[in-house]
Design goal:
The complex is a heterodimer of chains A (about 260) and B (about 375). Chain A is built from eleven helices and ten strands. By secondary structure, chain A is of the alpha/beta class. Chain A has two domains: about 170 residues, Rossmann fold (3-Layer(aba) Sandwich), CATH 3.40.50; about 70 residues, no CATH class. Chain A is globular, with a radius of gyration of 19 Å. The termini of chain A are far apart. Chain B is mostly helical. Chain B has a domain of about 210 residues. Chain B has 16 helices and two strands. The radius of gyration of chain B is 22 Å and the shape is globular. The chains are: A alpha/beta (about 260), B mainly alpha (about 375).
């Protein structure tokens, strides 16, 4: 059974159709990329899966359960985590608190235990701090734990965002342009990092990216979107030779 | 030399016993002052007001500072707490059992107000910022006009003859307990959720924070505390009317919060104390009283133009002081910083590389 199935998904903003007849099948352990020009509807797919938008039509099934109609936090609690195209850290909070916040759905104590700092509170808080610290260590951010997130260099902010997404304990990780603004050397490191965490956390990864080096380098399957419609889907080699894709990316004349 | 003193000071602040010891001393003083008459009644009254205002400022800070919303409903919450507890003591409780059951009435006032806080939290699901300010202002007006129009509870004349049961030691206990509750809430997963909502509501949802639940809890806790403050206030003043709880009252609490500093419990305590004490200090009679030890030949305070007109002048001095504070500390005196003793040990230890100097916990609070 596929992990995630999106079928006949459609979303429009008023009269503007951002995504039409979108189908997606992700199996456990897949690493899939979505590419396409700006405005093709890639981020809309992520927003639909995570519940930021409610699909106008169609259904999204995750482990057999319908996701359309759930709130973002309910979907996230089902272990679907994401990062953002334009970094959305909690900028005025510390690096450690950024990670600790993402433990919300796994925290097992009641508001009364929180008010009195009793019962499960102490044990849970210690567990969350330990887990957060181990994640920071994995991303080489432990020295910055007390730093305010806004003061981090750009690359570290990108890594912190991925670390924060992992704090949710995801099975499915959605990465929205993780390599945006990175230089080639940083992209190489990022590719390594994605492969590493994928193995270590047994993740299924769906990523949006413009950097062909990254997409062609690590994705096993690629889906191409343009103007909200799916142009092609296949292995990196097949996509690179697809006439429709070349037309969309390079223009009409290049195909002949 | 200075460095050594500073280090010693920091270590004292860091110690586990500092805060409990301070509270114990405060508790002893709170009981001793009225018992042995260590301070005159007027100063005791000011201290009681300080306590009530600390509760109000800290609880409003939870919504306006930590959560970054803008609520104007606080005077309304106070009113509900004041009215419900006053009615309880006067109509339900037997006179003989007042000292023992009085706290039940206070607690009930807080709980009833918490339910109302739940109601105010509902619009906050949809509305933010300036627009939530309008909604909460409307709530305040509804409460006020409802109280004015129910004749059974005195209508615009209000309720008089409430027994004076609020005393200094009990205000101290209530203040300590409520500030402790708010501090505990702030340093829990719900408190982190509150901060996350201030930073980025959509990102918090996507980091699994149940923002609606967090908002409801924060509003309810804030209203609960404001209700108790109102209840204590009613049993101190012995007379309440809808006019007492108008938007001016809310403004006063707002000033305490923003003066002391947003998202800081230490700041709220400081802001409430400063504001209350300053207003009292700037009365002609207080200044005259403070300077009465000077021989009248040298300096007679009441002869002095400035002191005689302080009643009017303080309405210029206070706002001016406020403007200056805002210019030099735009986020309030302790804005986004926290008094070290208030941060739980676990959070102090778990942050930063140099724990003695930096505790970049919530809102990157700097240590004092």
């Amino acid at each position: 059974m596929p992990l995630l199935t999106a079928s006949k998904l459609r979303h429009s903003f008023g009269g503007l159709c951002a995504l039409a007849d979108f189908n997606l099948e992700l199996h456990q352990g897949d690493l899939m990329g979505i590419i396409g020009p700006n405005g093709a509807g890639k981020t809309t797919v992520f927003n639909l899966i995570t519940g930021v938008y409610r699909a106008t039509e169609g259904s999204i099934r995750y482990r057999g359960a319908e996701l359309v109609g759930l709130t973002p936090h309910q979907i996230t609690a089902r272990r679907i985590a994401r990062t953002f195209q334009n970094i959305r850290l909690f900028r005025d909070l510390s690096v450690l608190d950024n990670i600790r916040i993402a433990h919300y759905s796994q925290t097992r104590y009641s508001p009364f235990e929180a008010l009195l700092h009793l019962g499960r509170y102490r044990r849970e808080e210690q567990r969350i701090i330990d887990h957060s610290r181990s994640l920071l260590a994995l991303f080489k951010l432990e020295a910055l734990a007390g730093e305010t997130a806004r003061n981090l260099p750009y690359g570290s902010q990108r890594r912190l965002e991925i670390a924060r997404a992992l704090a949710i304990g995801p099975e499915l990780l959605l990465l929205d342009e993780p390599a945006a603004g990175m230089n080639p050397a940083e992209i190489d490191q990022l590719m390594e990092l994605i492969c590493k965490i994928r193995g270590q956390f047994e993740l299924t990864v769906l990523l949006i990216e413009h950097q062909m080096k990254l997409v062609m380098g690590i994705c096993e399957r690629i889906k191409v979107l343009d103007f909200g419609e799916t142009l092609a889907e296949g292995t990196p080699e097949a996509i690179q030779n697809d006439p429709w894709v070349m037309k969309a990316y390079l223009g009409e004349g290049a195909v002949e | 030399m200075i460095a050594a003193i500073k280090k010693h000071w920091n270590r004292t602040l860091d110690a586990r016993w500092t805060l409990p010891a301070g509270l114990a001393v405060g508790m002893v003083l709170a009981f001793a002052i009225p018992h042995f008459g260590l301070l005159n009644n007027y100063v005791q009254l000011v201290l009681i007001y300080v306590g009530i205002n600390i509760i109000l400022a800290t609880s409003l800070n939870l919504v306006n500072g930590y959560m970054g919303e803008f609520s104007l409903a606080h005077a309304g919450f106070m009113a509900v707490g004041a009215y419900s507890s006053a009615l309880l003591t006067m109509k339900v409780l037997p006179v003989a059992a007042y000292p023992a059951l009085f706290h039940l009435a206070i607690l009930a006032g807080g709980l009833i107000t918490a339910l109302l806080g739940l109601l105010v939290a509902l619009p906050s699901f949809k509305v933010r910022g300036d627009y939530l300010a309008i909604v909460t202002l409307a709530f305040l007006m509804i409460v006020k006009s409802a109280l004015e129009n129910i004749d059974a509870i005195g209508g615009p004349r209000g309720i008089s003859g409430i027994p004076r049961l609020t005393t200094l030691p009990w205000v101290f206990c209530w203040t300590t307990a409520l500030v402790w509750l708010i501090r505990n809430f702030v340093y829990s997963c719900y408190g982190r959720g509150v901060l996350a909502i201030r930073e980025d509501e959509i990102a918090s949802e996507l980091m699994s924070v149940n923002t609606r639940r967090v908002k409801v809890l924060a509003f309810m806790l804030s209203a609960f505390c404001a209700g108790i403050a109102g209840a204590l206030f009613a049993h101190l003043l012995q007379f309440i009317s809808p006019r007492v709880f108008d938007v001016v009252k809310t403004t006063e609490i707002l000033i305490m919060v923003y003066l002391g500093g947003i998202a800081s419990i230490g700041g709220s305590i400081l802001g409430a104390t400063l504001y209350t004490v300053m207003l009292e200090l700037l009365r002609p009679s207080t200044v005259a009283g403070l300077l009465s030890w000077l021989p009248a030949v040298v300096f007679d305070p009441l002869d002095h133009y400035f002191i005689r007109h302080l009643g009017v002048l303080r309405m210029i001095i206070m706002p001016l002081a406020l403007v200056l504070v805002m210019l030099f500390w735009p986020r309030g005196i302790l804005g986004l910083r926290e008094f070290r003793g208030f941060i739980p040990q676990r959070d102090r230890r778990s942050h930063g590389t140099a724990p003695l100097r930096r505790t970049n916990t919530h809102a990157a609070a700097d240590s004092l």
